[in-house]
Amino acid sequence: MSLKLTILGCGSATPTIDRNPTAQVLQVLERFFLIDCGEGTQLQMRRNKIRPRHFDHIFISHLHGDHYLGLFGLLSSLHLYSRNKPMYVFCPPKLKEIIDLQLTASGTRLSYELHFHELVENGEQLIIETNEAAVYSFPMNHRIPCWGFKFVEKPRPKSMKGEKIREYNISFSKIDEIRNGNNFVNENGKIIPNDELTFPAKETRTYAFCSDTIYDESIIPYVKGVDLLYHEATFAHELLDKATNRYHTTALQAATFALKAEAKTLIIGHYSSRYGEVSALLNEARTVFENTIAASDNLVIEIS
Amino acid sequence: MSLKLTILGCGSATPTIDRNPTAQVLQVLERFFLIDCGEGTQLQMRRNKIRPRHFDHIFISHLHGDHYLGLFGLLSSLHLYSRNKPMYVFCPPKLKEIIDLQLTASGTRLSYELHFHELVENGEQLIIETNEAAVYSFPMNHRIPCWGFKFVEKPRPKSMKGEKIREYNISFSKIDEIRNGNNFVNENGKIIPNDELTFPAKETRTYAFCSDTIYDESIIPYVKGVDLLYHEATFAHELLDKATNRYHTTALQAATFALKAEAKTLIIGHYSSRYGEVSALLNEARTVFENTIAASDNLVIEIS
Hints:
With 304 residues, chain A is an alpha/beta fold.
């Protein structure tokens, strides 16, 4: 079991040569989720050999340009590639209006169904469930309405112990329910506990995405104990005033947030373009939360 | 006197690793004009060391995403850089609505004035005149309303012959009008012809941008005799049917257009992503119009 996170862009509002604006791909088994879609996302997908047609679900955190300006181009390309399966976009209310206006202006009638699901500001919400994962939205605290997303891997069927199948003469038709956790009752009515028949269930993994936001501990319950936490760290702590004024977070604050949220691993990003390289931000975060990773474009992180 | 054209993007609708969507910068003396603004234009400006703050005029040919999706990000960045001089955007009618909606959604009130000038479909129009150049729009023939642009360098004042100033005792106050082409009348009423007093005027240069369009000879009068003609060449001529169906042009057609327009030099671009390299398109064009250049990202062409 593993989650694979690819950072397509880890910059903030003004792009730099080395950093595209925010976009990430989370892969859970064969399922690909696109999280934010800043300008250049299509090109970054190409560079990372990720195919746009693999996506059915796109999550947009908020309507600052550096988090969604790559979306219309991506949707247009899917049309040019003659996509015919539906696409689901989970996003702030006004995005549908923006995309619809752009479609009208370009005279495009998409080759596929495009569904918008408006995010709501009322606490944690289960917004989509696939065979591979459940996805929740929760409110961030930014200058405009903004959401975080949590991806919770679904438990997978347990593996059977082959010798037990023979020992108890278990018929093929019973295998699925045993793998899903049920006990087995043999022909004499004897109950064989599930644990005796199967290997322990593999742990499921969780990923939470928190960008953009001011430091806000009221968000912690939504991401408590996640395996991997992405939290924005736009500035170093010496620029706390600037961070606060702009509803952003410092690296030190991101680490404090991760510590209090009891995350296993923290990944920071959304760096201000003033930082050519980010070791100062990383070191600052590690003074509080040792297990911190600095995002960089094209970085791949696997949690297995 | 020279025009300097920088190709920021020469791809078409679906971007490739090597080709950004359409954007070009034309420099006339100290004046910078941005022509189309596909996704990634800001980054391409950085790569080419062109500063966004140098621009006061942006020209958008039409509202297919590959020609304008970089605009909102660019305008947002200028706001973050605290720009305070006005920006003028010459564009199809609906673009103002799109940008306004995105500004509202992002809660942004720009730090500078943003003026939209709607292009009109009625033949050639003088749309802006600066000290350096006059810019004209003219209609292309595409699937949606689309415009080309012609940039005509302004004549510069002629240079005086120093010895004639002394010979005719010309006062300082008369110099400007002589440099602008007037004759000189001395104190005895004798007319000294301008040609005797000045060096010949330097030639002015013209650039015309034609993208996107089906092959259409009715456009030729608008670009007759230009020094440099950019014409889209999305496909090779073997795909003429596809080009025609999609209101695009083949390389052979672009060359025929340049020949009939009596352009000095042709530059082709807007290549379909099916072409990894474009020597076939270039060779095809050169069978008809020898002086053809193939656009590539970051190519700089000077006409002097």
